[in-house]
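tool_call: predict_structure(chain=1)
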Amino acid sequence: MKQVKFGIIGIGNMGSMHTNFVSALPEAKLTAVCDLNPEAFKRIAPDILKKVKTFTDDEKFFAEADVDVVMVAVPHYFHPDLAIRAMECGKHIIVEKPIAVHKAEAERLIAACGKYPKLIKSAMFNQRTRPAHRKIKQLIDSGELGAVRRVNWIITDWFRTQHYYDSGDWRASWRGEGGGVLLNQCPHQLDLMQWLFGLPTMVQAHVKLGKYHDIEVEDEVNAYLEYADGKVGNFIASTGEAPGTNRLEITAERGRLVFENGKIEFIRNEEETSTFCRTTSKSFDTPARWNCEIPYGNAPMPEHQEIIRNVTAAILHGEKLFAPLEEGIRGLELGNAILLSGLKDKAVTLPIDSREYADMLAGLVKKSRYRKTVKKAKNAAADGSFANSFGK
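tool_result:
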């Protein structure tokens, strides 16, 4: 095999972008696309569209498409079923984030993955490929920072307008999307939180539903996290702040690292904080320190494309995956724990009871409503017709 053949199911915002990413890779070839609404294919560049076979029926796609890899880029509720169907057909998979809406569904998907050990299975956690994030992980894993004591991530630059939410009736509803900022915007940061620091053992959160928008799901989150090794964390997210903030602050034995505005800045203590605290004869002094800006290089290609390249190389050359699909349950569980804590107004221990969360979500879905302001099927192609057909 010299080229890996890709098929994309769901041609919305992300699916249409992926058609460009796949087509730009020399060892990848886009051969098929699928969406329930043929209008969605207008989002594909004409020079790409003329080279691929189009399908408006998913079963026909799975039966007839000449593909090695299926990319699942449909609304969240359909990720597990379509990914499992692809594996049943012998296809490698890339699943958009999140891999499922809740932990129980992720467990079902991962159990199915275990039946196909020879298939490559990746999640689209493209932010793991960012050089800055990889550098921060290297600094943590190498021990350069010393033991991490506290983590703060303020991620409020996800501003969304009411028009954004009104562009599809599935958006920002329990029945259509299964959540708000935690499930749509923040899966990357939730994944990075567990990738860098592991999962906490306890979460205490406050969430606000429709604080800034006419939506029924959360658009503001404040969470406090406790970990088994004694470190603590704070995770703050919102789609209602402009311009918003994206600031990751790590306090560790060797000082404080801040990643903000594209810079990694590390105030490095010459002596570990706890050692200095115990041994100094001074009352108000602090350890001697250096002010460092840490370089991290440039990305070789767009980050989504790097995940696709990585999967292609895994199939052709045995390259290690950046984001194995099975790891997608971790950040999802963290998001589920935050929402469970906030909506039930209680501290939640991890691992969470996946059935408790599923039951809570089922109750929210039962009460879910359509918003009168939502523009209906004529705008289906704007966000991918799977959203407007499967979601109803």
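agent: Confidence is low (pLDDT under 50) at residues 376-392. Proceeding to next step.
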